[in-house]
Specification:
The complex is a heterodimer of chains A (458) and B (466). Chain A is built from 14 helices and eleven strands. By secondary structure, chain A is an alpha/beta fold. Chain A has a domain of 208 residues: Amidase signature (AS) domain (Amidase signature (AS) enzymes, Alpha-Beta Complex). Chain A has an eleven-stranded mixed beta sheet with strand order 1-3-2-4-6-5-10-11-9-7-8, with helices on both faces. The radius of gyration of chain A is 21 Å and the shape is globular. With 466 residues, chain B is of the alpha+beta class. Chain B has three domains: 283 residues, no CATH class; 100 residues, no CATH class; 59 residues, Arc Repressor Mutant, subunit A (Orthogonal Bundle), CATH 1.10.10.410. Chain B has an eight-stranded mixed beta sheet with strand order 5-6-9-1-10-11-12-13. In chain B, helix 5 packs antiparallel against helix 6. The relative contact order of chain B is 0.10. Classes of the chains: A alpha/beta (458), B alpha+beta (466). At the A-B interface, helix 8 of A face loops of B.
Chain lengths: 458, 466
């Protein structure tokens, strides 16, 4: 983690809170955790003074995406439906980070329920890009990305279902790790799509990313899908076989994005890695598969928000039908409703086989295509997104264009693979471009070490 | 009238599993006598970000149930989500097994020898409970998430009696196998009876009606009989078209079924594999391990008891209590069929608050066989056993040991014969009026305080009366 320069935890937290306020115009935070963060900093400093064990992240301020449960305050997922929801539990990822002494200074803005790729779809308004305030921050972990990019905090937690960490990382020039599915517990994180939801982080360096990931990773008895920790194992990165996914380096991809990614590939070659181009034509179906499977799971996972036990309930709703209908109508954002509709459609009897089942079959083919590719290559490389950050409101009239932002990030999500977004360069106008490193399941640490080696290279 | 028609019945039974905690959360599964919403975890409450944790014991009990049903246990199965909105269903879906259940085809043999095939059985969670008041309703989630095994039969049942026998046999199987506590009063087993009526031998079945939520064997039989009568009458009157595919409720008080909800507007549950619960993949060794712990089943006892010559009505009565079946089995293992039969008769006919031990029963039966106590005295002893006492100790204490000392008995007989009350009877017997013997034996028994052996008393008396 970045050196504390001899500052106390209290000073670091105060600085982070001051920076958060200074950049208020970017609309990064849904709320700050000022009082509790300051109290915790005082406590950490006391423990340091007393010579107690304080952990690997002692006194380090960080930001938390608005969909993580933390009893400190509300967990709102940036949606009306949960604006009054106070979680009684702590997400496992948060617990592990805080057990190492990190101090959470605020919740970051996101697309409501993590549905989106721009952080425009939030009940709290748009989070703006760290390089250009007329552009989006990316999403759905937009607030977390900008908080790290503007150096308010050295790292922030996020969730990635189809690109929600990687794409905003790319749009803001920071590192963003989506781990192997099951690497980090999902317990306490507001679910989007259970089969591709992952918990990861955004940070300023590859080394910091690895430290935070290794702290969060590992089995959790509260999440049956978690795997043993594989971040702490030593990894071999000399002379790797690198496959560049040609399908994502040509048509429809911004030339400046292609240029930046090619520059990064040159660095890989210079470092002694063996680079070749690979074609994975099946990946062009991934986006269609994603937008069937994921809405299906979303429609199911959002069924619990019914206005009965917690969350938003429509005022003056009299009958059960009114409570359900109006609470869900008023509590969800339009994009939430769109995905519920798609999901219900593909799961309905008569359509299930044609959409959901067929999509799952194609998903299996995608997984197989990756497996075959990984027999020949250790790492696959492609851009994170087809272009740099787009203008706020640019895709308002064409939702499909917004979905197309996910074309390169959804394939690894469907296959459960680790994927890292690393800064690759900038466009002439100063917008950042990210490169995506994808590896076989469990190779998360190797991706991070490779990125760390290239990070220092000229 | 009904001779021309036949019912076809299939039964779905929801069995509450005898686990300590719920199917997907670690809270108490036993909500009896508890405040509403006392047994609810964040998982049952469906808070955001909560994940289901499958109860391993529930899987184990399902495997046991599969064995008890003589069914195929599917090594691979998975859970699916069944979606619908109702306030008793916190997640907005029930986690169940729709596409690939844990238990495949099986078979249940009824007490009368009829066989009913089991289509499949699957694990699922129960919903909560709603209580309706004037203009509001209250939700109690204590039961939400309770593990159930739903056993679905084939439509192999053709009489109301067989419907009851099937329900009874399922109850026995599930309680003997330790799958369920089988507490019907608290809804541990609930039956849905699907019934249609058609002319005997007809190829096409009639319209299917479902009678939901029956919680006693008697109501299963009565509801099937009532519904058969109702549908037959409609068909006879040429109004068969009025039989709708619908769900009907049963009232024990009125003895009738009433329409509840039509099934014609079938709900679309949008079944989907549950991505939060990894598929079950049961290793052969795991299944073998579970089955190694399997208790004896009704059929094991039935075969042994019948072989020992216990009449089948008595066998069935004993099978109603697993503890009695275990007792009789223990007695049979230590003795012969004759002794076993005496014990079997007691278990089937004597109402005991607390059952004696197998040792006590065995000793007592042997004492009856050795004429040390009378059958009458034995029945009195049976309801008075307390811990630790042997049958002999208790018989002594209660002064119920039979008098088998001829000298003492003769003294009593002599006394009775000399008494004025017996004079007339003695004269009658001497005159060949044998009916009077019974009266004299009665007097002797009374004089002996019930301890005399009546058969021996008779022998000695007749000898004396020449």
């Amino acid at each position: 983690m970045k050196k504390s320069d001899g500052k106390s935890s209290l000073e670091r937290v105060k600085e982070a809170l001051a920076a958060a306020k200074k950049y208020e115009a970017y609309n990064i935070f849904t709320k700050l955790n000022e009082k509790k963060a300051l109290a915790r900093a005082v406590e950490i400093d006391r423990r340091i003074a007393a010579g107690e064990e304080v952990g690997r992240l002692a006194g380090v301020p960080y930001a938390l995406k608005d969909n993580f449960s933390d009893p400190d305050d509300l967990t709102m997922a940036s949606v009306e439906m949960l604006k009054n929801y106070h979680a009684p539990v702590t997400a496992t990822a948060v617990k592990r980070i805080e057990d190492e002494g990190a101090i959470m200074i605020g919740w970051t803005n996101m697309d409501a329920f993590a549905h989106g790729a721009s952080t425009e779809n939030s009940v709290f308004g748009v989070t703006l890009n760290s390089r250009d305030k007329t552009r989006v921050s990316g999403g759905s972990s937009g607030g977390s990305a900008v908080a790290v990019a503007l150096d308010i905090v050295p790292f922030a937690l996020g969730s990635d279902t189809g690109g929600s960490i990687r794409q905003p990382a790319s749009y803001n020039g920071v590192f963003g790790m989506k781990p192997t599915f099951g690497a980090v517990s999902r317990y306490g994180v507001v679910a989007m799509a259970s089969s591709t939801d992952t918990v990861g982080c955004l940070a300023q360096t590859a080394e910091d990313t690895r430290l935070v990931m290794s702290i969060m990773a590992g089995e959790d008895e509260k999440d049956h899908t978690t795997l043993p920790d594989f971040f702490d194992q030593p990894v071999e990165t000399s002379k790797l076989r690198v496959g560049v996914i040609g399908d994502f380096m040509g048509e429809g991809v911004d030339t400046e994005v292609v240029g930046a990614v090619k520059d990064y590939i040159k660095k890989l070659e210079k470092a002694g890695h063996e680079v070749a181009e690979v074609s994975l034509p099946i990946l062009k179906y991934a986006l269609a598969v994603y937008y069937i499977v994921v809405p299906a799971e979303i429609s199911s996972n959002l069924s619990r928000y019914d206005g009965i036990r917690y969350g938003y309930r429509a005022k003056d709703a009299k009958t059960l039908g009114e409570i359900y209908g109006r609470s869900r109508d008023e509590g969800f954002m339009p994009e939430n409703k769109r995905r519920i509709m798609i999901g219900n459609f593909v799961l309905s009897s008569g359509f299930f086989d044609a959409y959901y089942l067929k999509a799952q079959k194609v998903r299996t083919l995608i997984i197989k295509a990756y497996e075959e590719a990984f027999e020949k290559y250790d790492v696959l490389v492609c851009p994170v997104a087809p272009g740099p950050a787009f203008k706020v409101g640019e895709h308002d009239d064409d939702i499909l264009k917004l979905y197309l932002e996910d074309v390169m990030t959804t394939p690894p999500s469907l296959a459960g693979l680790p994927a890292l977004a690393a800064p690759a360069g900038e466009t002439k106008s100063g917008l950042t471009v990210g490169v995506q490193l994808i590896g076989p399941r469990g190779s998360d640490a190797r991706l991070l070490q490779l990125a760390a080696e290239i990070e220092g290279a000229k | 009238m009904s001779g021309k028609y036949e019912m076809t019945v299939g039964i779905e039974c929801h069995v509450q599993l005898a686990t300590r905690t719920k199917l997907f959360s670690a809270v108490d599964n036993d909500a009896r006598e508890k405040e509403p919403n006392a047994c609810v975890s964040p998982v049952d409450y469906a808070l955001p970000g909560m994940l289901p944790l499958l109860n391993a014991r529930a899987v184990e009990l399902a495997v046991r149930a599969g064995y008890a049903l003589g069914a195929k246990i599917n090594q691979r199965s998975h859970f699916d989500r069944k979606h619908y909105f109702y306030p008793d269903l916190p997640k907005g879906y029930q986690t169940s097994q729709f596409y690939k259940p844990i238990i495949g085809e099986g078979k249940v043999v009824l007490a009368n020898g009829h066989e009913v095939r089991v289509e499949h059985a699957h694990l699922e969670e129960d919903a909560g409970k709603l209580t309706h008041f004037g203009d509001y309703s209250l939700v109690d989630l204590n039961r939400a998430g309770t593990p159930l095994l739903e056993i679905v039969s084939m439509p192999d049942i053709h009489s109301a009696e067989d419907a009851r026998l099937y329900a009874e046999e399922l109850w026995r199987l599930m309680t003997y196998a330790g799958v369920s506590y089988g507490d019907l009063y608290h809804g541990n087993m609930r039956f849905d009876v699907n019934i249609s009526v058609a002319p005997v031998g007809a190829k096409k079945l009639g319209t299917r009606v479902e009678i939901k939520n029956l919680n006693s064997f008697r109501s299963v039989e009565r509801a099937a009989a009532y519904e058969f009568g109702r549908q037959t009458e409609l068909i006879e009157a040429g109004r068969g078209g009025e039989i709708r595919q619908e769900t009907r409720g049963w009232s024990d008080a009125t003895g009738k079924t009433t329409a509840q909800r039509s099934k014609e507007q079938a709900q679309d549950y949008r079944y989907m594999p549950d991505p939060d619960v990894p598929p079950l993949n049961l290793a052969e060794e795991y299944i073998a391990g579970v089955l190694a712990e399997m208790p004896k089943l009704p059929e094991d006892y039935r075969a042994a008891f019948r072989e020992a010559g216990v009449p089948s009505e008595i066998v069935e009565l004993i099978l109603d209590r697993q503890s009695y079946a275990e007792l009789l089995m223990a007695v049979l293992e230590e003795s012969d069929a004759a002794t076993g039969k005496i014990v079997a008769n007691w278990l089937a006919s004597v109402v005991m608050d607390e059952a004696p031990t197998a040792e006590q029963l065995l000793e007592l039966a042997k004492m009856v066989q050795g004429s040390e106590v009378s059958q009458t005295a034995a029945k009195e002893l049976l309801v008075n056993f307390s811990d630790g006492k042997t049958a002999r100790e208790l018989a002594k204490e209660m002064n119920l040991l039979q008098e088998n000392d001829d000298a003492a008995l003769e003294k009593i007989i002599d006394g009775v014969m000399a008494s004025p009350a017996a004079a007339a009877a003695v004269a009658d017997v001497r005159a060949g009026e044998m009916k009077a013997v019974g009266f004299l034996i009665g007097l002797i028994m009374k004089e002996s305080g019930g301890k005399a052996n009546p058969a021996r008393a008779r022998e000695l008396l007749l000898k004396k009366l020449g």
